[in-house]
Amino acid sequence: MSMRQQFSQVLEKASMGSELTKEDIVTLLQALPGEEEEQLFQLADKVRRENHGDAVHLRGIIEFSNYCRNDCHYCGLRRSNKDLKRYRIPMEEIIEAARYAAALGYGTIVLQAGEDPYYSGEQLADMIRRVKEVGDFAVTVCVGERSREDYELMRKAGADRYLLKHETADPELFAQMRPGTSFEERIKRLNWLRELGFQVGSGNMIGLPGQTVETLAEDILLLKELDVEMAGIGPFIPHHQTPLKDCGPGDLKLTLKALAVARLVLPLAHLPATTAVGTLHPEGRKLALSCGANVIMPNLSPATYRQMYQIYPEKAGSKEDADESHERITTLVKEMGRQISTGRGDSPKEHFKNGPAC
């Protein structure tokens, strides 16, 4: 099927690097199977190569706690899930996982957990300091909404990046999916993180019940407005212990189209081929790397904890140990003719090029 005139015009506009309107983004997200999708994916891949080269950055995730105070309708870690065995990884094991990452030459460690109030800002800062002592890598923190003081403590301890997904740019849908929290508070914290000098990551899910293509366009425009250094865009996958257990998963093709459009709108941002897209489809990560993605986040948590960090069931890599996970991902990258990055993978934006901002 040949391309529609309107789609062709918007794609040409994107290829010139012109700013895309919400209507333009909606048009691209509605790319039809065949030539339209192919041309969109090819352009996104070209923009990725021009801005980031062929290196794929590995960010090793250590999921150090699966306790969470929130009751989000989409997440298996929600506090109402009484069937989940909870854990907190002892510091010694966190450090051991970081040593393993250093030995493999990883450029980034991601310290990730549910919103676990057990950890004070000082404890998180201490964890960051101790992990930074292990190797020459950047540390990304992903522990949800905290006080500005906590963020400041983490930054001073050496945290380089912070990942706080906005999940959806629709304030009503946000409140519905995340009872007891608000979209405004989320955005306030993303702005705090920017002010404190973090490289900021955010992102959204594809396929939440009640989401529209217009909402997805708003998600991408919000990521542009926030000027994020990383955007995590992945499909919603239902968990059997949540209120959304009977809903279908996000659509793979729509996820890839959203990723491709995000690459066009955010040429300098790092875009991961998410674990969720690898869970949804066995070739999901490869497909994402062909549509603009340039990051993979292998799970380096000790094997005993992996299956308990159940945001959604059957998470890719949750049944492997760290060696298997790393081996599979490096093989995948090489099969695509790409190479593993040997650096920290900081943002290519001018003020981040030489490592963390002061």
UniProtKB/TrEMBL annotation:
Ranges for domain Radical SAM core: 54-274
In residue numbers, the region (Disordered) covers 337-358
Offer one Pfam family short name for this entry: Radical_SAM
Q: Which portions of the chain have biased composition (kind: Basic and acidic residues)?
A: 346-358
Q: Name one GO molecular function term.
A: 4 iron, 4 sulfur cluster binding
Binding positions for S-adenosyl-L-methionine per the UniProt entry: E167, R178, R186
Describe how the cofactor binds.
Answer: Binds 1 [4Fe-4S] cluster. The cluster is coordinated with 3 cysteines and an exchangeable S-adenosyl-L-methionine.
The UniProt keywords, alphabetically, are: 4Fe-4S, Iron, Iron-sulfur, Metal-binding, S-adenosyl-L-methionine
Q: Does the keyword Metal-binding apply?
A: yes
Q: Does the keyword 4Fe-4S apply?
A: yes
Source taxon at top rank: Bacteria
The protein's required cofactors:
[2Fe-2S] cluster; [4Fe-4S] cluster
Please list the residues that bind [4Fe-4S] cluster.
Answer: C68, C72, C75
What NCBIfam families does the annotation carry? rSAM_HydE
**PANTHER family given in the database record:** 3-METHYLORNITHINE SYNTHASE, BIOTIN SYNTHASE
Q: What is the recorded name of this protein?
A: [FeFe] hydrogenase H-cluster radical SAM maturase HydE
Q: Which organism is it from?
A: Desulforamulus ferrireducens
